[in-house]
Structures are given as C-alpha cells and as structure tokens.
Amino acid sequence: MSERPPFIHFPGLSSSTRGESMELESPVPETQNLHQDSQPFIDSFQHSSSTRGENMEEFGSPGGPYTQELLQESQPFLHFLGLSSSARSGESMEFESPVVKTQSPLKDSSVDNISWLPDEILSHILSFLHTKAVVRTSILSKMWKHVWTLAPNIDFNDHSGPWTPAPEFSLFKSHVDGVLFHHVGPIKKCFLNCATMHSAPYIYAWISAVLSCKVEEFTVYSSYSGIKELPWNLFTCKTLVSLKLMGGFVLDLPYYVCFPCLKKLHLDSLIYVDDSSMKRLFAGCHVLEELHIKRVRGDCVLIANISVPSLKRLYLVVIYLEHVADHEYKTNINAPCLEYLEISDSSSIDYSVNFSASLVQAKIRDSPMLVRGIANVQILKLYGEAVESWNSSSRSTEWPRFNKLFHLELGGLLARKYDSGNEGLQFHGFKWIPPDSVPECLLETLQTIRIHNLVGRKCEIFLVRYMLKHAQVLQEMTIDWRYDVKWGKKTSVQRQILSTSRCSEDCEIEFI
C-alpha cells in the first residue's frame, strides 16, 4: 500500500468534519498516524498565520490610521456584504489556497465573507471607490494584495494648479505610473486630469497604457495648451464607447480614423490642424449618436463640416472666434437622424443644415440664422439674439411656420407675432407688447403656460390677465416668483391675477 500524503489542517474545518471525511478512505488508527505525521506541517502553517499580521506592517498596521481611513471610506460596501470586524482587521485571512476557497465559509460568523466572492463581484465593488482608496485595499491581507489591479474604474485627478512645483507633481506621476503598470484587468472608465504643465511629456505614455487595457469610456483633460503628440492608436481604438478630449490638444489625425464602437464624443476647446481635421474625424465615427463640440478662439477652423449620418444628439458651443480678413465662419451640419439640437453661438456663424425632418427638440441661443432650418421641430427653446430676431418686425417675415410645434420657451423677450398651434409656452424675464389681434394659438390650441421669475410689474400682470381672458382651451398656468420678491408684493399680485375672469373654465392657476 503506497504511503499517503500527510493531512494538513486548514482553519475553519472542525475535527469532527475532518474525522468523518477521513473515515471514507481509511480506518481511524491510520488517520491518527497521519495526524502525527503531519504535525510539522501544521505547526509551520500556524506559525506563518500568526506572523502574517506582522508582515503586513510594511503596508501599514491593520489597526493603524491608514487602514482605518480605508475602512471608513469602504464601510457601506463592507457592511452590505456582512464583513465581520475580525475579518476587516486582517486577522481571519489565514490561508490563500484556491482549493480551500471553494469551501463555503458562511457557517462561521467570524469568517471573512467578502474575500470569498468571485473576482467579478469584487471588482464591481471596488468600482464605487476612488482609485487611491482602491489601492489601499492591498493592506487588508495578503489575499487582497493584488485585488485592486482588477478595478474597472480608474480616476487620476490632479487637483493642483498649472504651476505646481515639480516635487508635488512627482507624487501624482508615481501614483499614475504605479496603477497603470500593475493593472491587469480591462478598464471600463478612466478619467485622466492633468492640471499642471509638468504632465505634458507623460500624457502620450499614459494614454497608450490606458488604451492597452481595452478602455470603454475615456476622459482626458489637460490645462496645458499645444500638446500635439496624441497616440495614433487612440483614433483606431476598437473598444471605445465614449471619448472626451478636453483642453489644448492639437488634433493631428493619422491617415486612417476608425471608431467602430464610439457612441459619445466630446471635443472641448481643441485646436485643429485645418478644416479637414474635423471632417476626417467624424467620417470615422460610424455609430456615433451623441456629439459635444466646444469651439474657442484660435481653433484654426473656418468651415466646420459635421457630417454624421447616425447622430441623434448634437451640442455645439461657439465662444467668440477671432475675425479673419476676407473669410467668414460657416458650419455645415448633415445629420439626417438628429433628434435633439442645442447650440449657443456668440459669433453669428452661418449655418447650413440637413436634419429638419427628424428633429424633435431644439435649444438655440444667439443663432437666429439657424432657426429657419428647423421648421419641423416640436419643442423649441430660444434665448438671446434668437428671441430678439423673432421680435423684430423687419425679420419676422423671414421665419418659417412651425406646424408641428407644441412647446415653445422664450427667454429674454416675448415675441409679438406667432400664430402657429403651440400647446405650451414658457417665458423667462419677458417684456411684452400686446398684438393687434389675438393669436390663433391662444384662441384654439394653447393648453399650458409657465411663467418664471415673475416680479409683479404692471406689464407682467397685464400679460397674464390678457392670456387668461383669451386662452379658450387653457388648462394650466404655473407662475414662479423671482427670489427677491417680498411676501406683501406676492399677495397683492396674486389677488389681481386670481380675480381675472378666465375664458377657459378648466384653467387652474398655481403659484410656486
């Protein structure tokens, strides 16, 4: 009969359980002999277990302030999983055997429950913690020493200013280098904020390291302007679903650009090599659905071509662009599937659009030329010069008829002429002049009116009473006050409005 290997005692298994399991293979006397033969192994194992807490001093004492800070940050998650106090202090982590991990530890309330969870669940838990807190979990026990490398979300946020001294930046650099070097799992979300000029030489390597981890959502911000060296494999990444580039990056694109999975793209304050850079970038976004663009002075683009057939939501902000002699800024938008449009343009750029049929909602500030191309919109919000243009009698005839419009929100000035069939109106800080005839929408279709920041001026009260007297199908009027209106003023204005006769018997007035 061949000699069996000695039986090794693992903590958590009772003597009765061990005896029962051994009786299936050998008589009790032989089992006792095996216990005697294995005693050196048992003593050695127990000795290593007792000294393991001492070995953790190089990471920080389990009861020290470093661990306590981590446990305080992680308390909601540890409490949710029923982690005992002894397990959290690192005392129950007696072994690392993968064979033992298949055993169920739930019979003993003093056993560490969280460490037995699959890596997928542990990484999901760590995704709710800040990266620095995730790294600190390595001090809990040897079993946790490398769990943090599986965290799916990474946040590198440099809160220092652009002129931070080099020694302070070196701490941030060491942190980023260490996390990216040891990370072994795929990255779902990564936020890289480089707020100091010292980070410029390292951004290329950091972005490359993140891309190698098959990142899905990537945000990169740099306050240092003029960074030209972006990895070209960034523009052919197959795993990116969301990409945000913010800061003074120079968009020098490779010959081939392809984002097969990219659905959200943010381009904030970038510098483009020429007009074709933007066009080539969008040509490689085959499934893009949401696009945010913020153009600033000196971005080197005169004619912006935004052609994305799959685009559904577009956000465009244009801050004052510098004047170029004999050149005019122009934006061409080709998005036949566009459903939502939000544009704020202080440079009065000329627009050529192709999305009128699909557009549902639009929010436009200071871009009156654009309004003529969105006649089929259902929800329209206008602010600034867009409202002033509408209110101008010289331009009102140029505006289209919005046959599908049922919600109109005007900020700044109230338009005097509008006869389409809208069902909802909102006013923000209006100044009103009564029309020569009652608008058709007020007589036939207007059902909801919301007035914001009411002060109680005579013209405001006159407008409210005018609408109540002529709105035949009005169902609801909501009025909220400006923050500084006193109680006595509110009471007086409410009395005047509530005493007004209403054309619609179903109309209800609510003051907020």
From TrEMBL:
A Pfam entry, by short name: LRR_At5g56370
Composition bias type Polar residues, residue spans: 29-53
Domain F-box: start-end pairs: 111-147
SUPFAM superfamilies: F-box domain (SSF81383), RNI-like (SSF52047)
Residue segments, region Disordered: 1-66
Record Gene3D superfamilies: 1.20.1280.50, Ribonuclease Inhibitor (3.80.10.10)
Protein name (record): F-box domain-containing protein
Organism: Corchorus olitorius
